[in-house]
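Researcher: Sequence of Universal stress protein follows. Predict its structure.
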Amino acid sequence: MFKHILLPTDGSDSSDVAIQSAVQLARETGATITGLHVVPPFHTFTYRADMLEDTEEQYDKESEVQARKVLMKIEQQAQAGGVPFDTVVIRSDDVYDAIIATANHRHCDLIAMASHGRRGMRGLLLGSVTQKVLTHSELPVLVYR
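Model: Prediction complete. Tokens:
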């Protein structure tokens, strides 16, 4: 069975459901969890309001604080379930690629993640990190909806 689960989260309600389920799976199988939050690096020219108003130093500091808040949910669930865990923050513009690279680098044998369930034109325009992970990962991917 699985021994090391990568659990990426974006802090959404969908991710919260995935966290609860993945922690339960890890507890039942004796697996370790690595929680992951991917933060886009600072860009001088951007569409994101939080980057337009900040300096690079401010953005890095505030995004790190926000990432730690998001990962706190994994920490709390894993501690409550008695599941060994660690967390990591990665800076990347390509979220799906960062997820796959982290899973490989940390020798995970499963990626467990949420899907927001976007369909139709909205899904096509916004793209799907989950779909890209499913398409490009050589590791098994468990998707929670």
